[in-house]
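Bug #77: duplicate submission created two jobs. Keeping one. Sequence:
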Amino acid sequence: MATEVIRSYPVEHPPRGLRGYFAMMNRDIASVLERDPAARTRLEVFLVYSGLHALWIHRILHWLWLHNFRFLARWLSQIARAMTGIEIHPGAVIGPGVFIDHGMGVVIGETAEIGADVTLYHGVTLGGTSLEKGKRHPTIGDRVVIGAGAKVLGAIHIGEDSRIGANAVVVHSVPPNSVVVGVPGQVVVRSRPHHAGDAPDLNHISLPDIIGVTIKQLLERVDQLEERLDGHDQKTHIHPPVGDVWDGQDFSI
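Kept job's structure:
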């Protein structure tokens, strides 16, 4: 679906004033219509999308935070959490066009920074791993997609146009245009790189089983070596699956 383009801005310099705020709201609504096939009309998006409501409230609370009304901002953020199921610390910096789909259980920490046109699914955590004051939450580049249940932890950087698979746990920085899967997160080279002008890459359930593939290759190698040994019983270990289906081994199930 074609959407109007509203000028982006560096994360640390959001538009000021009501005009800039409403322009950002307009872009947020357009991003939902672009990325959610369930969205039908602008009115529906405006009224029922909790992810948008959480973002819009956050931007007001972030202004309060920057102007040292910090207790008030924290108190109101807890009310917003109760209303939307999404917890965003008022100190977090969030760019335009961010879309929180469903959103229940999303947690965004105080020093997190999120770039433009990022997509977060439910259960995502942008968390800290240090007791030190200062930067301790992740920085998310433009157009990153973070799948349902994924955890991005620490003062790390996720490069632009990357995709974090559902339920991945990311604890190290990720270069631009990467796919991350697994626990802990492993970077997989993309066969189809994503660029700024491309349609949003929302395939966060594409989860190659890196460990499973490695084990299968090792088992195949063991079988090849055993075939060279005369009289060796080839049933003394688990053999690789046929067509990704494990058969012939008693797993006591």
